[in-house]
Amino acid sequence: MANPKPVLIEEITVPLIATSPSQSIFIADDNYQVVGVQAVADVLGGAGATVTVEVLTGVQAPGAGVAQLTAPLALNGVAHQVVTGTLIAAPTTAAAGNRIGIVMAGTLTGLVGYVTIAIQRVWAGTDSALFTVKGSTSVGDDPAPSPTLMTYAAAQGLANTYAQKYRGATGIVRDANGNTIYTSPTYALLAPGVGF
Known about the structure:
single chain, mainly beta, Jelly Rolls, 2 domains, 5-stranded antiparallel β-sheet, 4-stranded antiparallel β-sheet, elongated
């Protein structure tokens, strides 16, 4: 298997000050989605001071991308209080060459703080990495030793096979950080005397 993928989740921290512009902060080298955003203002900004996160494609200027939060994060509320953003229902996948950026708004006068954006790789079936495949119950054997270098499609297949064999259970695929990235369907129990 060529080109195993690295760890899935990365965090990007951007300092914010009164002169912080709306800007690109990450260029995707693969498919990624924003999975979390938090900000804090140690010194509050002025009226309407906010930050949000967006995905930009092509030559879009900062501020013209697709917002990834349902509402911008206020930077003028309570000093030193961490605020957490609510992601849109279907976060945009930033493909290779797309950018993730921040959009600053309002009166930033006096602002001192930072925003942290967590991004997660979106796996394709042909991507290979060290995946862990486990069952959701202690019934039977785990379908693969863990962690094992395999493609994402192979890991999904093992999880699904486990769920079909041990009906009522699910197979779970985890990344190198232990994050669950796939859960198999749960298959109904068979009638007595019916085999797999």
